């Protein structure tokens, strides 16, 4: 079924009886050409592009819970291409281009809103680091504008310019940055994959990976054994557990990241804003809630919930930066499990086991990467060669030290990225 | 979350700084080889369940602690000084 | 309508308030909701999506409809629940989300278009043409969405945060909570009793029943009085426990002065962090609606809320009331209405075989529709014999009660389904240390609440090692509950589940039909449960409807996740103290006052403040001051406070061995009385920090770190000492705060220093990199002959209490020698002239190799980072490596953050050769100089490259040069 204004109209006039399931609920087949483990954003987009770009139709996504139930549905929805290290730049640039055509491609409104992202800086040193970043963005073909203090004040007059502990020196403005409706991204890809024949199998937990003579032959699941010559492991915070089924120990530590939303408010914040001196970034959803987040709780966790110290820090940073939001009330907080890598950048790579592919290490930047991650992962799984835009995301970079992409510069301590 | 510091008693985690897996205490020999060092610096068991990890009582007594904690329930089962725990980590 | 009665309002204290500009009267003890109802105001709000007229539905914090804005200007406070807003004299409340007025709301047109606005409609449309989303559709949606509005002004009210600790936290002061607190307090436990209401007592204040031999509310007041008199009890009324966290930590929001017209210094709200060894959840239960056609009109209210308004506030919600329910509570409401003299137009019971002894028109059936555009006028009752319409201006509904188990589920636990009460109940142990009691535990009679409260307290006391006494449990109501589940009444039209977000039974069914069958999918697709009430009024009903639609049972369907906070918490409360300067501690050097007095702009350096420059009369730009101050150091003598650098005192027989392990180079070989530059790596082989370390004695070293990394290095050193090398006999202590330290730099530095020292020094006794104890006017001090400027220079350290005096003295004497104080700008130029690095260069991605210091990595010993630094990728010649840069093009300027390209290459990523890290104008050399990283850097000295700064519009060519621009032989520092 194709969505259109006419379809909405005719359905509305006839009692909305004709809407069909957005995806099927198939029984797993005995064998697939390719299996994607993980029905999150990255897994669904991988399956979608396997079908769309590479013509693979006999594909299954295996999800232990419900599709889109992981980080794709529990983030702060920011979409941006403001990385500065080679390897990252071209990948996120590619991803943003895919975002810009996503609604048309999926025939599903993911509400991608390019409202502009402003990273604030609060010292000369930070300004110079952001200048390096902004110039890298322009070198890549993306957009960036260096705002001085007055330039920031012009578009964000409600920030604390008069009494702040860390005065605002300026900001790096990324006009094409913005937000999207996170759940819709998962559902749009799911629907698109399903329409192209991909089996989305929910409530199907992988319990083992079958390997014979160094080749993957299939998986064991709570719904039986399924054979496949190619298996993609796309399970974010659960990467270590699933990889362990193949005998692999990954450079991943799983951490909890909290996020927050307030009650609905009339429009007050029109951009995505990121504070430079505390862990705080914020935007306002189309429904009116202020959506904001901070840093990890900093301890390893699979709990999808956090504790008060970071929650309070985030609120404190909010009050320091924009005391006009003080009377907004936090409605809900939640946590996601972040697959933190040693350099803060991801892995999209083949493994030492033939037919087993790895997609992990998104830290807490995975949402914006969903389109390109699936695009490049599908390319890797279909062709056995890395996609040119993801060529830097190799697993062996840690052992060789070659091509590390440490945007934060905090080194090989997983929770610091 | 609260950690029972052997020196200071039960304290809120806001006083502590986290480092990571307690395997960091078992530093390999300099010539142990690339694979061993890669494992030490980058790779982690990352269990969903009990784990031993390093916390620093930065806003307290400055002790480095080995905390046995469940990464799913966050329950803390044991706390000991890193200097005493060294060698216990298999 | 106000009625007679002896509720908890004080008729001797009348209050005036306004709603949407109209003045009304109320009484002390009223909430805004009870006062509005007393004034026959039924229409109080508009729904989120369809802008349907809405009235007060509940009497608690779960209220979905009656959200108002209070206050003007910066004090404007949106989305307050009228049901918990205590009335005060002069309260001005306004309705929300309507235009132009509550009565005539233009967006009510949305309601007519409802067939096109079903669940998830926006995912299917607004996509054509593409550019219209951001330009038209989204702005339109944003303007229509949202509830109240922020003022846009900075918060001007006071908020606070606090900590509390107790043996036992009792959450809720109804019969269970009061009994629990009393039992524990009498046994000597430290008890905190928190309740979100202003008056403790819970449902006892809303009902007419007796406890013991007295009215329930009098019994409650008596218990509260006893507790208040006990030293081991803290009563926290107006306090909602908002979240359960690990380790017995609970968040709590106290509405301290929101009910006070002129609060003075009292905070509006206080956010508490309560640490409790044990906790009892006695938060009661919330009544749930029934979904039937048009069940959202003003005048339709929960049956228990009707009793609360009648009995506590002496307010009748209407003149002719229909009561509808599926449990015995509905009958209780009818009885209370009768007793209060209010006409009961009908009592409708959905249970099979239901009957009543009350003298009211009784129907065994269901409500299947309502009428009345802005307020209820009539209801339709479906019975076996057909549909009957009954005129009524209020409808009391009870679909049963849901235990308030939210906090018990905050750690991710899933509750159990209790078929007997058709509700979820907490599963024991979901939050360690927390036990549920009373209605929160599914015990719905007062007698059972009292018994469970006492029992839970006894169990907690046993855990705490306290001896529980024999609780004295008073006699109380122990009636049956007797519920037959009823989630939605079948039929045409729209039946609301989530009132606030306008989610109907049809929406849930549509979601199920479109494959959103998981309860989480349904929630996210329909937005059910995502409104400010967080599904308190709708979750169980909605998942029951979903279960039905998908052919599953309710427990199979499961719940969504319960997440903090239980009630919305203002950012100002949870972030209290951080506004303005309070966000982070401020660290001041001992020279701060003198620098400010000298007119120096103070800039943030981490938590520290440091002088940017010291303007002289007549100077109009920072560059003039900076150039002059650089000249002081190069030509005479300059003074700079360097106390912010980390100073770590290291002592013990193994101090040298310890330093050998943390630095790349050797320190055990350093002679006493000498200082050495050291480079420190992370274990992953990248540079962590640098600085000088002095050997003050055989077993005594003093390390300096950069200002930025002082804390990080201390943590790292302690880890190495305790975690990696506990075999070494060495101790560390930070002495950053204890010593004030000043650089005295320039050709006349020794002259200045000798003017102060009790025993003058000379070049032989105190050569470059020498250090030692000295005295200044009898004061013990330390002198280091080290230089961050490349000049003959010293750093003098004195105990911090002498810092202010010494700085003023040094500054005055330097001025007498033709020099003076210099700030960060000059310091930066001086260090770039010498090619000295800061964290602009050692930014976490650079290796010793990158900065040309591979020679400092000792081959003779192991050290932190050694092995990983030898990974092939970290030693490649092609890495971006440190170079100096001089502009050679027409544009004689360099900018930090610019990128480098080969001279003829376009400035695109594929051609990137490196970037500029630090720049400054060198008055010494008369041109800009810069440091940067360039692929194959040191191999390209002499090459001309292109520098492009797109952002600032600066482009030039540069000569690649040695990063040491000035005095490369270093003779000046040694002279």
Model description:
- The complex is a heterotrimer of chains A (417), B (90) and C (975).
- Chain A is of the alpha/beta class and 417 residues long.
- Chain A contains eleven helices and 18 strands.
- In chain A, the strands form three sheets. In chain A, strands 1, 2, 8, 9, 10, 11, 17 and 18 form an eight-stranded mixed sheet that branches.
- In chain A, helix 2 packs across helix 10 (366-383) and helix 3 crosses helix 10.
- The longest helix of chain A is centred in the last third of the chain and has 18 residues, at 366-383.
- In chain B, strands 3-4-5-6 form a four-stranded antiparallel sheet. A two-stranded antiparallel sheet of chain B has the order 1-2.
- The two termini of chain B are 26 Å apart.
- Chain B has one domain: 2-Layer Sandwich (Folate-binding fold).
- Chain B is mainly beta and 90 residues long.
- Chain C has 975 residues and is an alpha+beta fold.
- Chain C has seven domains: 10-116, Ubiquitin-like (UB roll) (Roll); 159-285 and 403-464, FAD/NAD(P)-binding domain, CATH 3.50.50; 289-399, FAD/NAD(P)-binding domain, CATH 3.50.50.60; 486-552, BFD-like [2Fe-2S]-binding domain (Arc Repressor Mutant, subunit A, Orthogonal Bundle), CATH 1.10.10.1100; 592-644 and 738-831, Probable tRNA modification gtpase trme, domain 1 (Gyrase A, domain 2), CATH 3.30.1360; 646-734, Aminomethyltransferase beta-barrel domains (Alpha-Beta Plaits, 2-Layer Sandwich), CATH 3.30.70; 876-974, Elongation Factor Tu (Ef-tu), domain 3 (Beta Barrel), CATH 2.40.30.110.
- Chain C is built from 22 helices and 49 strands.
- In chain C, the strands form twelve sheets. In chain C, strands 8, 9, 12, 13, 14, 15 and 27 form a seven-stranded mixed sheet that branches. A seven-stranded mixed sheet of chain C has the order 17-23-18-19-20-21-22.
- In chain C, strand 25 (416-418) and strand 26 form a beta hairpin.
- The model of chain C has no long low-confidence stretch (mean pLDDT 97).
- The chains are: A alpha/beta (417), B mainly beta (90), C alpha+beta (975).
- Chains in contact: A-B, A-C, B-C.
- Chains A and C meet through helix 1, helix 5, helix 7, helix 9 and strand 16 of A and strand 6, helix 3, helix 9, helix 10 and strand 30 of C.
- Chain B: Pfam families: SoxD.
- Chain B: One of its GO terms (biological process) is tetrahydrofolate metabolic process.
- Chain B: GO terms for molecular function: sarcosine oxidase activity.
- Chain B: InterPro entries: SoxD, SoxD_sf.
- Chain B: This is Sarcosine oxidase subunit delta.
């Amino acid at each position: 079924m194709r969505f259109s204004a006419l379809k909405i109209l005719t359905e509305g006039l006839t009692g909305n009886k004709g809407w069909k399931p957005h995806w099927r609920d198939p029984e797993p087949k005995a064998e697939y050409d390719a299996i994607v483990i993980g029905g999150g954003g990255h897994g669904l987009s991988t399956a979608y592009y396997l079908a769309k770009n590479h013509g693979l139709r006999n594909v299954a996504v295996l999800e232990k819970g419900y599709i889109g139930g992981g980080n794709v549905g529990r983030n702060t929805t920011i979409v941006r291409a403001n990385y500065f290290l080679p390897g990252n730049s071209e990948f996120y640039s590619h991803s943003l281009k895919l975002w810009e055509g996503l609604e048309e491609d999926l025939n599903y409104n993911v509400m991608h809103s390019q409202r502009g992202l402003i990273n604030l800086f609060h010292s000369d040193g930070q300004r110079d680091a952001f200048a390096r970043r902004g110039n890298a963005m322009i070198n890549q073909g993306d957009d960036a504008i260096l705002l001085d203090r007055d330039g920031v004040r012009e578009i964000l007059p409600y920030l604390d310019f008069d009494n702040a502990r860390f005065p605002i020196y300026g900001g790096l403005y990324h006009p094409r940055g913005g937000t999207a409706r996170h759940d819709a991204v998962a559902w749009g890809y799911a629907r698109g994959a399903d329409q192209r024949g991909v089996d989305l199998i929910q409530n199907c937990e992988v319990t083992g990976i079958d390997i014979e003579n160094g080749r993957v032959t299939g998986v064991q699941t709570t719904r039986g054994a399924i054979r496949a010559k190619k298996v993609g492991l796309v399970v974010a915070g659960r990467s270590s557990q699933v990889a362990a089924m193949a005998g692999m120990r990954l450079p991943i530590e799983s951490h909890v990241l909290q996020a927050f939303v307030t009650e609905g408010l009339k429009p007050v914040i029109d951009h995505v804003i990121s504070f430079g001196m505390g862990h705080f970034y914020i935007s306002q959803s189309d429904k009116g809630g202020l959506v904001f987040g901070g840093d990890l709780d900093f301890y390893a966790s699979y709990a999808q919930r956090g504790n008060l110290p970071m929650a309070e820090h985030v609120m404190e940073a909010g009050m320091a930066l924009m005391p006009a939001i003080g009377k907004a009330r936090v409605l809900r907080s939640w946590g996601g499990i972040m697959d933190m890598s040693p350099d803060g950048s991801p892995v999209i790579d083949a493994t030492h086991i033939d037919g087993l592919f790895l997609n992990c290490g998104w830290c807490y930047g995975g949402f914006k990467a969903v389109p390109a991650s699936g695009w490049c992962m599908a390319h890797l799984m279909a062709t056995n060669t890395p996609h040119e835009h993801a060529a830097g995301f190799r697993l062996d970079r840690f052992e060789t030290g070659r091509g590390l992409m440490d945007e934060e510069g905090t080194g090989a301590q997983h929770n610091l990225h | 979350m609260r950690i029972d510091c052997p020196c200071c008693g039960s304290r809120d985690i806001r006083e502590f700084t986290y480092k990571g897996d307690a395997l960091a205490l078992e530093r390999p020999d300099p010539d142990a080889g690339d694979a061993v060092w890669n494992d030490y610096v980058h790779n982690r068991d990352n269990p969903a369940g009990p784990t031993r990890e390093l916390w620093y009582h930065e806003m307290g007594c400055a002790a480095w602690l080995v905390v046995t904690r469940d990464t799913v329930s966050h329950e803390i089962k044991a706390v000991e000084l890193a200097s005493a725990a060294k060698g216990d980590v298999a | 309508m106000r009625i007679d009665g002896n509720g908890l309002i004080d008729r001797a204290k009348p209050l005036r308030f306004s709603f949407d500009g109209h003045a009304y009267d109320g009484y002390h003890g009223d909430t805004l909701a009870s006062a509005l109802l007393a004034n026959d105001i039924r229409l109080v709000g508009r729904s989120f999506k369809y802008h349907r007229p809405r009235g007060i539905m509940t009497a608690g914090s779960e209220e979905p409809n009656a959200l108002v804005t209070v206050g003007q200007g910066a004090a404007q406070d949106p989305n307050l629940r009228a049901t918990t807003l205590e009335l005060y004299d002069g309260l001005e409340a306004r309705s929300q989300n309507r235009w132009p007025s509550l009565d005539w709301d233009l967006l009510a047109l949305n309601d007519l278009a409802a067939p096109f606005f079903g669940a998830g409609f926006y995912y299917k449309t607004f996509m054509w043409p593409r550019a219209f989303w951001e330009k038209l559709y989204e702005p339109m949606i944003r303007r229509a969405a949202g509830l109240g509005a922020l003022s846009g002004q900075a918060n001007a009210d006071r908020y606070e945060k606090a900590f509390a600790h107790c043996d036992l936290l009792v959450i809720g002061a109804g019969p269970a909570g009061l009994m629990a607190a009393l039992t524990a307090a009498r046994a000597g436990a430290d008890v905190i009793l928190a309740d979100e209401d202003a008056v403790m007592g819970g449902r006892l204040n809303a009902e007419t029943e007796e406890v013991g031999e007295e009215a329930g509310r009098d019994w409650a007041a008596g218990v509260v009085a006893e507790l208040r008199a006990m030293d081991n009890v803290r009563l926290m009324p107006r306090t909602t426990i908002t979240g359960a966290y690990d380790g017995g930590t609970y968040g709590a929001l106290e509405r301290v002065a929101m009910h006070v017209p002129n609060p003075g210094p009292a905070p509006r709200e206080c956010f508490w962090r309560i640490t409790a060894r044990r906790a009892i959840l006695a938060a009661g239960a919330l009544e749930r609606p029934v979904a039937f056609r048009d069940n959202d009109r003003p005048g339709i209210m929960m049956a228990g809320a009707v009793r609360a308004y009648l009995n506590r506030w002496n307010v009748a919600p209407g003149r002719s009331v229909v009561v509808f329910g599926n449990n015995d509570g509905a009958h209780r409401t009818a009885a209370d209405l009768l007793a209060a003299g209010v006409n009961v137009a009908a009592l409708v019971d959905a249970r099979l075989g239901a009957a009543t002894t009350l003298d009211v028109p009784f129907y065994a059936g269901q409500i299947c529709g309502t009428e009345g555009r802005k307020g209820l006028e009539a209801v339709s009752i479906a019975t076996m014999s057909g549909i009957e319409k009954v005129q009524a201006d209020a409808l009391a509904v009870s679909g049963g009660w849901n235990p308030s188990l939210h906090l018990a589920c905050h750690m991710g636990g899933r509750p159990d389904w209790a078929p007997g009460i058709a509700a979820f109940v907490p599963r024991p142990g979901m939050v360690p240390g927390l036990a549920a009691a009373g209605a929160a535990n599914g015990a719905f009679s007062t007698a059972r609440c009292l018994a469970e409260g006492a029992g839970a307290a006894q169990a907690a006391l046993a855990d705490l090692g306290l001896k529980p006494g024999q609780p004295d449990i008073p006699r109380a109501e122990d009636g049956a509950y007797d519920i037959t589940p009823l989630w939605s009444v079948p039929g045409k039209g729209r039946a609301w589940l989530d009132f606030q977000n306008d989610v109907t039974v049809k929406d849930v069914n549509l979601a199920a039909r479109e494959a959103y069958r998981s309860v989480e999918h349904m929630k996210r697709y329909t937005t059910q449960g995502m409104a400010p009430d967080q599904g308190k009024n709708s979750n169980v009903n909605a998942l029951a409807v979903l279960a039905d639609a998908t052919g599953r049972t309710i427990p199979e369907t499961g719940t969504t996740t319960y997440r903090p906070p239980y009630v919305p918490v203002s950012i100002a409360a949870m972030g209290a103290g951080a506004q303005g300067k309070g966000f982070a501690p401020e660290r001041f050097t001992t020279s701060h006052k003198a620098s400010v007095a000298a007119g120096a702009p103070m800039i943030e350096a981490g938590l520290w403040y440091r002088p940017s420059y010291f303007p002289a009369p007549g100077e109009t730009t920072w560059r003039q001051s900076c150039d002059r101050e650089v000249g002081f150091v190069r030509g005479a003598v300059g003074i700079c406070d360097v106390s912010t650098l980390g100073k770590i005192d290291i002592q013990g027989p193994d101090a040298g061995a310890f330093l050998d392990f943390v630095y790349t180079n050797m320190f055990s070989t350093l002679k006493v009385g000498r200082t050495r530059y050291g480079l420190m790596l992370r274990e992953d082989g990248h540079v962590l920090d640098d600085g000088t370390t002095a050997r003050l004695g055989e077993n005594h070293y003093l390390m300096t770190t950069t200002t930025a990394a002082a804390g990080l290095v201390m943590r790292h050193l302690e880890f190495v000492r305790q975690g990696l090398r506990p075999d070494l006999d060495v101790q560390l202590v930070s002495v950053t705060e204890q010593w004030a330290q000043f650089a005295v730099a320039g050709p006349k530095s020794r002259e200045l220093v000798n003017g102060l020292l009790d025993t003058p020094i000379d070049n032989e006794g105190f050569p470059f990199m020498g250090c030692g104890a000295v005295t200044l006017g009898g004061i013990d001090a330390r002198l280091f002959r080290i230089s961050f400027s490349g000049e003959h220079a010293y750093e003098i350290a004195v105990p911090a209490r002498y810092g202010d005096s010494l700085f003023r003295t040094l500054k005055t004497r330097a001025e007498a020698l033709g020099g003076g104080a210099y700030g960060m700008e000059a310091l930066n130029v001086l260090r770039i002239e010498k090619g000295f690095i800061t964290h602009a260069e050692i930014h976490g991605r650079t290796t010793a190799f990158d900065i040309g210091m591979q020679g400092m990595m000792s081959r003779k010993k192991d050290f932190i980072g050694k092995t990983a630094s030898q990974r092939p990728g970290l030693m490649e010649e092609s890495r971006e490596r440190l170079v100096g840069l001089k502009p050679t093009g027409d544009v004689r300027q360099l900018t930090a953050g610019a990128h480098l390209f080969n001279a003829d290459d376009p400035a695109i990523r594929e051609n990137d050769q490196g970037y500029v890290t630090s720049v400054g104008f060198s008055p010494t050399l008369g041109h800009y100089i810069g440091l940067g990283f360039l692929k194959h850097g040191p191999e390209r000295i002499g090459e001309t490259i292109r520098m492009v700064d797109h952002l600032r519009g600066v482009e030039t060519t540069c000569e690649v040069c040695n990063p040491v621009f000035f005095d490369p032989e270093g003779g000046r520092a040694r002279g």
